[in-house]
Design a protein that fits this description.
By secondary structure, the chain is α+β, with helices and mostly antiparallel strands. It has one domain: Glutaredoxin, CATH 3.40.30.10. About 55% of the residues lie in helices and about 10% in strands. Strands 2-1-3-4 form a four-stranded mixed beta sheet, covered by helices on one side. The two termini are about 30 Å apart. This is Thioredoxin family protein. Pfam families: Thioredoxin_9.
């Protein structure tokens, strides 16, 4: 295994530990990462509420449940994130719900700013975008796929807006949050199910 990935895995935390960390930071009016600001602390509070809601309300359709539960390759999903990241707050609870359906899938979480060497191995268009999922085969110790920072439909939505306006505006970011709330994690479920089918084609035959 790549030593940087190995080191990050050794210093990773479970989903429950990450949720507890975000909750604690929200209570302390703080945030994870190298930069501490009031805005990032406020985003952390908002994300704590978002994740709490998604933990209770995400529903995985039966057909996806079946495909996910039949995936028989032991894998670790190493997720890079920070407490203040809006996309991550919507995506990571869905990934956790998916992993709960299959004991072969193990979720580990690390903070980006504590793992910049790892982050720089998995840039998105040259940027340190999160949440980023590194899917590792436990047997071969190799990276079999990556996912993120956003689900496919949100990525298209963002790219179209950037192409037209050059950068994301505060109004657009608010629209994106509405998209997440309306989608209820279904696009992430579709994307991940598709990836599992690519890794193990028999699931989708």
């Amino acid at each position: 295994m790549n030593p940087i990935i190995q080191s990050s895995l050794e210093n990773s935390m479970s989903y429950d530990a990450y949720r507890n960390l975000v909750k604690q930071l929200a209570e302390e009016n703080s945030n994870s990462g190298l930069e501490k600001t009031e805005a990032l602390a406020n985003y952390t509070k908002l994300n704590d509420r978002r994740m709490k809601r998604w933990d209770k309300t995400i529903i995985i359709p039966e057909i996806a449940q079946q495909k996910i539960s039949e995936f028989n390759q032991k894998a670790t999903w190493l997720i890079i994130t920070e407490s203040w990241c809006g996309d991550a707050a919507h995506v990571i609870p869905v990934l956790n719900k998916i992993a709960e359906l299959n004991p072969n899938i193990d979720i580990k979480i690390v903070l980006r700013d504590d793992n910049l060497e790892l982050m720089d191995m998995f840039l998105t268009n040259g940027g340190r975008a999160i949440a980023k999922v590194i899917m590792i085969d436990n047997e071969t110790k190799s990276v079999i796929d990556t996912y993120g920072p956003r689900p496919s439909e949100a990525t298209s939505y963002v790219n179209r807006f950037k192409g037209k306006h050059g950068k994301l505006t505060p109004e657009f970011k608010e629209d994106l949050q509405h998209w997440y709330n309306k989608d209820k994690g279904q696009n992430v479920i579709e994307d991940i199910t598709e990836k599992l089918c690519q890794l193990q084609p028999i699931l989708c035959q």
